[in-house]
Design a protein that fits this description.
Layout lengths: L2 H4 L7 E5 L10 E10 L4 H6 L1 E4 L2 E5 L4 H6 L3 E7 L4 E9 L4 E20 L7 E6 L1 E4 L2 E4 L11 E8 L6 E3 L6 E3 L26 H11 L2
Parallel strand pairs: 3-10, 8-12
Antiparallel strand pairs: 1-4, 2-6, 5-7, 5-11, 6-7, 7-8, 9-10, 11-12, 11-13
Length: about 220
């Protein structure tokens, strides 16, 4: 999901996710600094991390597959083919009297293995963004989706960023689903890593059933 676009979308059904992490808009802050870095990820390193689920944002909730398809640009089966890079923005907080993380985004690239809908071809490489990152032993995430790991294969419903050549899973956990035949990397921070979400209750089983039936995956 693209946070910058959500304020422009009017829909009947939105779900607000409210948690306690301090962000720049809450406190008086100044002099933001963005750090671009690359993390070496492995199941063993993830196991050592503390999961911090955080953020304040609205996300779209889809009732069915037709509604999801109406709001995305493309749908594909794709494989992550790169190491994840992350972009961390810091700002000084008068409340905490120190620099804090004010925004965090990770990027990876998928290779399209199968086209379900949209103007895209098998073999195309697509830049994917997801709102999470690793900082000081913590995996901080605005997303309910588990991290992007090289070699993992998923079904993606993607919305193109309105100003940049990259895509996001529109609707977050409603927009990425398992490929039944795929064997993805372990994810010790999830209670059901095969589904690609931290919490099983966030997985939309009804839409997944529709996807498997319609696209014969």
């Amino acid at each position: 999901m693209l946070k910058s676009e959500m304020g422009c979308i009017t829909m009947k059904k939105l779900i607000s996710i409210i948690v306690t992490f301090a962000i720049c808009s809450i406190f008086t802050a100044c002099d933001t600094v963005t750090d671009f870095s690359e993390e070496m990820e492995s199941p063993f390193e993830f196991e050592e991390l503390k999961l911090v689920r955080t953020g304040i944002y609205d996300r779209v909730v889809f009732d069915d597959l037709n509604m999801l398809e109406d709001y995305v640009d493309i749908a594909v089966v794709g494989e992550f083919i790169a190491d994840t890079e992350q972009e961390i923005t810091y700002g000084y907080s008068d409340h905490f009297k120190k620099e804090i993380v004010t925004d965090i985004v990770s990027y990876n690239t998928i290779e399209v293995k199968k086209v379900l809908m949209g103007d895209v071809n098998v073999g195309d490489n697509l830049r994917i963004e997801q709102y999470y990152g690793i900082v000081d032993g913590e995996l901080i995430t605005y997303s309910g989706l588990t991290p992007m790991q090289k070699g993992d294969e998923w079904i993606f419903f993607l919305h193109k960023h309105y100003t940049a050549d990259r895509y996001g899973c529109f609707g977050d956990t409603d927009a990425r689903y398992p490929v039944p035949s795929a064997e993805n990397a372990p994810m010790p921070l999830s209670d059901d890593p095969a589904l690609g979400v931290y919490d099983e209750q966030d997985f939309n089983q009804d839409i997944y059933n529709e996807i498997l039936e319609k696209y014969d995956i």
